[in-house]
Design a protein that fits this description.
Blueprint: H1 3-28, E1 55-56, H2 64-78, E2 89-94, H3 101-118, E3 122-127, H4 133-146, E4 150-153, H5 161-169, E5 174-177, E6 189-193, H6 198-210, E7 217-223, H7 229-248, E8 251-258, H8 264-277, E9 281-286, H9 289-301, E10 309-313, H10 317-324, E11 330-334, H11 336-351, E12 363-365, E13 372-375, E14 379-382, H12 388-392, H13 398-402
Parallel strand pairs: 2-3, 2-4, 4-5, 5-6, 6-13, 7-8, 7-9, 9-10, 10-11
Antiparallel strand pairs: 1-3, 11-14, 12-13
Helix pairs in contact: 1-2, 2-3, 2-11, 3-11, 4-5, 6-7, 8-9, 9-10
């Protein structure tokens, strides 16, 4: 059989299996769950332990046939010859879900689809460290005890020394996802996907500069939880671009704060305090569209919605609705599907005992660490007139964005 025909057949079969699982789940009123052997099931409501230990992810969240089809298309675009892995095992995925929707709506379901298609006898275990480095260390230790055979890690700390040592001792390869790992020894990290929040933070700041605000315009940064590496690096990236304009007096930075636990309510509190102390603030950069929602609530109390420009991050349905309603000005997007497609190639290659293909991992990451095969993630800034990009990248659908909105908001809802 020709390779291209085989790949189309394999993709079709995988999508059919996803649909059958979803149908069975609906019919039975429950959900199946991947296990280390890939054959047994467990309740979807399996809880974390008192220490926030790992949980087994449910295939119920597989995101539907359209999402799976788009994702598998991205994988095949990257590596049409990606071999299947016929062995057994379990992939650990340690990722801070928090209030960020795409982790559970896209990244985890896409990884499940990856394994169902390319490693059907391999299960998945996920854990949420809740932005606590010590908790993440405990959770990964539990995963290693469970016998995971590969670890996809979005590190809370940029130097997860204990995790790296434990993984090395257990001969479990580590793949860095979204957040960079620093001070790793050569070979400890087999691949890295995306360079975290830096491109997004830089894009937000560049958008602000492109608006050519009047000299002395007051600007505030309300990022995510500054106890996390992601929020810290995002703020650093924003300031790197903005600093010359701040130093020259073109912009006046009046606040740079974080939102505890990445919660919109915390962003609202911070915005309220800023509006009291600096009533003339005209621009707010924030670490997520869901944080922008809280900021908008604060602006409502001061009758300043639409009078303060907000740029967010993610391109969620709520964020794009806020843009259509004139409450938010712009957002920076990246495709989690494209990001996890790269992760899929890394995971399957690693399970097969192969190095990640250089055709996919076409760069080397060497920032404060030994060289790591690396693939960057594309970002784009969208406003009301350019939000079609979010639909093209399957970040969200037009139907989701237009739900509950009047046609008077304009395209795509008119």
């Amino acid at each position: 059989m020709e390779i291209s025909k085989f790949l189309r057949w394999r993709t079709a079969l995988a999508l059919a299996l996803v649909a059958l699982v979803a149908l069975a789940v609906t019919a039975c009123g429950g959900s199946s769950s991947s296990s280390s052997s890939g054959g047994s099931t467990a309740p979807a409501s399996e809880e974390e332990g008192e220490e926030g230990g790992s949980t087994t992810a449910s295939t119920e969240s597989t995101g539907g046939g359209e999402q799976a089809e788009f994702f598998l298309g991205e994988v095949e675009h990257l590596d049409a010859g990606l071999p299947t892995f016929e062995g057994e095992g379990k992939v650990g995925f340690s990722i801070y879900t928090g209030a960020v929707p795409h982790w559970t709506q896209q990244d985890i379901p896409d990884l499940e689809t990856c394994l169902e298609t390319y490693a059907p006898n391999v299960g998945i275990a996920t854990s949420d460290p809740k932005a606590e480095a010590e908790l993440q260390t405990q959770q990964v230790s539990s995963m290693l005890t469970e016998g995971i055979t590969a670890l996809l890690l979005a590190p809370v700390s940029s130097t997860p020394t204990t995790i790296m040592q434990d993984a090395k001792q257990n001969e479990v390869p580590v793949i860095a996802y979204v957040n960079p790992i620093e001070e790793a020894e050569e070979g400890e990290v087999v691949a890295m996907i995306g360079d975290g929040p830096e491109p997004a933070g830089e894009a937000q700041a560049k958008w602000v500069l492109e608006q050519h605000y009047p000299k002395g315009t007051e600007i505030a940064l309300i990022n995510g939880d500054l106890a996390t590496q992601y929020a810290q690096k995002m703020q650093e990236a924003q300031l790197k671009i903005l600093q010359p304009a701040i130093d020259s007096g073109e912009l006046k930075l009046v606040a740079k704060v974080g939102s505890k636990n990445w919660e919109g309510a915390e962003a609202e509190k911070e915005a309220n305090a800023i509006l009291v102390a600096h009533p003339n603030v005209k621009v707010i950069i924030t670490g997520g569209d869901f944080l922008a929602t809280g900021i908008i609530e604060a602006l409502k109390t001061e009758d300043k919605v639409g009078k303060v420009d907000i740029i967010g991050l993610e391109g969620s349905a709520a964020g794009l609705q806020q843009i259509l309603l004139g409450e938010q000005k712009a957002t920076v997007i990246k495709s989690s599907h494209k990001e996890m497609a790269v992760g899929c190639v890394a995971v399957i290659s690693t399970l097969n005992g192969e190095e990640p293909p250089k055709s996919v991992f076409n760069e080397t990451w060497e920032n404060n660490t030994a060289p790591i095969p690396f693939r960057n993630t594309e970002v784009a800034t969208v406003e009301k007139a350019t939000m079609d990009k979010a639909f093209e990248w399957q970040i969200v659908s037009e139907e989701e964005v237009c739900k509950g909105l009047p046609s008077s908001v304009g395209p795509p809802c008119s």
